[in-house]
Structures are given as C-alpha cells and as structure tokens.
Design brief:
- The protein has helices spanning 51-69, 100-112, 146-158, 169-175, 221-232, 236-244, 267-280, 329-349, 368-378, 411-417; strands at 8-10, 13-17, 21-30, 34-42, 75-80, 85-92, 119-131, 134-145, 162-168, 190-196, 201-207, 210-217, 284-285, 293-294, 311-312, 320-321, 326-327, 357-361, 382-384.
- The chain is of the alpha+beta class and 423 residues long.
- It has a domain at 216-384.
- The strands form five sheets. Strands 1, 2, 3, 4, 5 and 9 form a six-stranded mixed sheet that branches.
C-alpha cells in the first residue's frame, strides 16, 4: 500500500534587524508549514541611532531569546536594514562574459566613485528597455557597504552563530508571498508591497513572484512621532506613547495604551480598526481614477481568500488624531507622493500593466489608519498583509509576539525563511 509522501525542512533562523525591533523566526517548511520558534526584541528609543549601543543590546539579549524561544541550530539567515542599502535602478548595456551583477557593480562604482571591494552588490534584471536607440537591461541594483555587512556577520559570530545567508529586505518581502503566486497565470498579477517601518518604508512591485521595482523611502512612523513631539513639545519616546494610546484617524475616541497582556504595542488599535473596517464593509478603491469599491479576490485554488491577506482596508481621508488634534497630512502626503512616483516609474517600464492591489505591511501598518489614508491617496485596492497566518503555531512559545492578531510587521522575517543560503 502506498502512503502519501510529506516533505519538510527546517529553515535556518531568520533575523530581521529592524530599527525599533529585531525579529527572529524559524519555520518548518513543506506540505504543512509551521512555526518552530519566534521571538521579538524591542530596541529602546535611546539606542536606535547609535550603532555601537544598538549592537550591544542585541549581543546581550540575542542568546537569551534564542534559548527562551526554543530555536534549533545555530545557522542564521539575516537581512541588512534598508537604511544601510543603496537601491538603484540601472539601465545596463550587456557585455559578453559579464554577469548582470558584475555589470551593476562596475556601473555603481563609476556612478558613485566607490573603490572596488568596498560594496557588496546584488542585482536583478527586470526588463529590456531602449535608451538612445540602444537595448539595455533594466536592473535593480542593491549595494551595501562591505563594512556594514561584516558588522552584522561579526555581531552574530560573537554569539557563536553561523551566518549562511544575507539578503535585502525588499527581496524578503516579496518572497514572503511567493505561495499565493503558484499558478502559471499568477505572473499577470501586479502587486505593490508597502512595508511601513519606524525609520522608513520599503516599496516593492512584483509581477507574480518576480520583483520588478524596489525603493526605500525615508518616511515612517518616526516622522509621525516627530509631528506629535513638535506639537506637544515632548521627546520622541513620549510622542510615540501618545500615538500608540490613540486610534490614528479614528472617530475621535481615545483608547488606552495596550497592556502587556495584549502583546505587541499597537495590537489593540489594530483589533479596533479591523472591527470597524468590517462593520463599514471592508472596502477599498478598485482602480486608479475610480471610486468604486471591491473586496479582495478569493484564493482561486480553495475558493476563499488567502489567509495572509486577512482584511481589506477601507480608505479614509482623515489625517488627525490625539488630544491636540494633530494634523498628519504633511508626512502622509509626502509618503503618498513618493509612492505615486514609484507607480509612475513602473508604468513607464511596463505601460501595459497597472497595479492590481496594494498589500500593506510593516509594524506601522498596525495603525490601520495610515494604510487607509494611503489607499485613498493612491486610489488602489488595499489589503492588510499577515505573512505568518498560513503557518501552524499550536503550542509554540513566541516571546514578544502575539499570534492571536495579524502581524504585518513580520514579512521580512517570513521571507528570509524561504530565501536561499548564499554564503
């Protein structure tokens, strides 16, 4: 009698070195993917801008969390924070005998005057273009200072961990959603990923699984905290607590700050906002230039929506919150303008394709009003992403992580688990 064959594989430990938090995840890949271990380390505001102090916190807490979380092995696959990665679209003339990565590295060194060997370059060819009547390869170039790469590898080595892969956050974000693009015609689906972090926002556009555009925008939750700090004449830490204690873009009601029992800061706001969104019809603009509303297309293989896209995002034009009625229009409009430029660049590259959906990710998207405002500004159908939702997690200890609510901030860590070991 033949028995069904099930395959499984334990991933290396994925570490997402974020500005406000470091996330660690290990999964069992295969027919029934599951969380083996997960943990989150909050980074104090006082050390986020000082590399030596940031590293010291991680060096002290990382071994404890790995042990407490029950992680297996010592193999690590990590991402380099996007604020340390120079992302550039290049149009390269192909040369026989040279790879796209070699060409990109050479062009980057010429354009920015950096010596050979001082940067680590990753390159992805996304399209063939014409410039000056000459065929060129449109290429996404990710350049990282060699010292920066070694800084994180050395940090892990001191904890007696072996780094087996280093990737960019943008690539990891797209890989986190590979599983919803398995059909042959899924490469016709164009997705805008907007990962809103504390320090900045990662932007990626994909055609199915293939990334075709990437950019890092230096605009995130910290800029909203700065608006509060300026209005209330307080420091950033106090401003952040003010923001977390109120429902951003809500209906004027104030909500108490989440308690320790509610898990990650901001989950109470996410629960409330998602409940309101469901009550309002959970809708979003269906296309640019139209105000009609549509829900997320069901997952075609099972007749239901993907677990990793748990909710549509209802757009809103409001941009005020808090006891001082602080106006966030300026920082949010600036972010929306930057995203619009990303869409225009994609349209110039692929005039026959329009973006079908926006998936909102990142820790700051827990304040759902940020996503609602962007959905309204860009006139795009938008969904909240929860990349951990497809993973079984029964009985797993997850220090600092509440799996009872969507976790849009875990896209990078989840994607790293599915990334190749390239070192």
């Amino acid at each position: 009698m033949a028995f069904p064959k099930f395959t499984s594989h334990v991933s290396p430990i994925a570490i997402d070195f974020g500005t406000s938090a470091v996330k660690m995840l290990q999964v069992m890949e295969g027919d029934e993917p599951a969380v083996i271990a997960a943990a989150q380390l909050e980074i104090p505001e006082s050390v986020r801008d000082t590399p030596a102090d940031y590293d010291a916190v991680i060096a002290k807490e990382l071994p404890r969390l790995l042990k407490q979380g029950g992680f297996r092995g010592r193999r690590i696959i990590c991402s380099i924070p996007s604020r340390h990665v120079h992302t550039q679209h290049l149009q390269l003339v192909t040369v026989d005998g040279m790879s796209i990565t070699e060409l990109a590295a050479s062009q980057f060194q010429i354009d920015f005057g950096v010596p050979p060997g001082s940067v680590v370059v990753r390159a992805i060819e996304v399209a063939e273009t014409l410039k000056g009547g000459q065929s060129r390869a449109e290429t996404i170039c990710f350049a990282i200072g060699h010292r920066t790469v070694m800084r994180f590898i050395d940090l892990l080595r001191k904890a007696k961990l072996e780094t087996v892969g280093v990737h960019t956050e943008a690539m990891a974000i797209v890989r986190a959603f590979d599983h919803i693009h398995r059909r042959a015609d899924d490469d016709q689906v164009t997705t805008l990923y907007v990962d809103i972090g504390y320090q900045g926002t990662n932007v990626a556009i994909s055609h199915g699984r293939q990334i075709v555009f990437s950019r890092y925008i230096e605009s995130g939750g910290r800029h909203l905290d700065q608006a509060i700090a300026d209005a209330l004449h307080c420091d950033l830490e106090a401003a952040h607590h003010q923001r977390m204690a109120h429902d951003l873009f809500g209906r004027g009601e104030s909500r108490p700050a989440p308690t320790a029992g509610e898990g990650i800061e901001g989950n109470a706001i996410l629960r409330a906002a998602m409940a309101r969104s469901a009550a309002d019809g959970s809708a979003s603009p269906s296309s640019r230039g139209s105000s009609s509303m549509t829900a997320t297309e069901p997952e075609r293989r099972q007749g239901e929506r993907p677990a990793v896209l748990p909710a549509d995002i209802a757009p809103t034009a409001a941009a005020k919150t808090g006891p001082a009625d602080i106006d966030f229009s300026e920082p949010l409009d600036a972010l929306a303008d930057e995203l619009s430029m990303c869409l225009r660049y994609h349209r110039a590259l692929f005039p026959a394709r329009t973006v079908d959906r926006m998936i909102c990710l990142g820790g700051e998207s827990r304040q759902i009003g940020i996503c609602q405002y962007l959905a309204r500004s860009l006139r795009l159908g938008a969904q909240l992403g929860d990349p951990l939702a497809r993973l079984k997690s029964d009985g797993v200890k997850t220090p600092g992580l509440d799996l009872a609510v969507p976790q849009p901030g875990w896209a990078v860590a989840c994607g790293l688990c599915h990334s190749p070991t390239d070192l």
